[in-house]
Amino acid sequence: MKVVGRAVSTIGNRMLIIQCDAAQLPPLYSEVTDRRMRTVGKILDLFGNVKAPYAAILCHEKCSIRPDEKLFAK
User: Which domains does the chain have, with CATH numbers?
Assistant: First the structure.
């Protein structure tokens, strides 16, 4: 498991925006989990600056991730 990034904000009920580490960018459509290893959703898009990228995650259910919570990729 590697750290994908930290949650920044939510858009609507099911879209989550996270700030990624540029050195450890995950591939598109990879599964994202929280610290308890529960599946949160899939990465749909990577965008933003090359040095500080962001990722858009489509959650499987209503997003209950708090800001600044770490997320991981399988």
Answer: 2-64 (2.40.10.230)
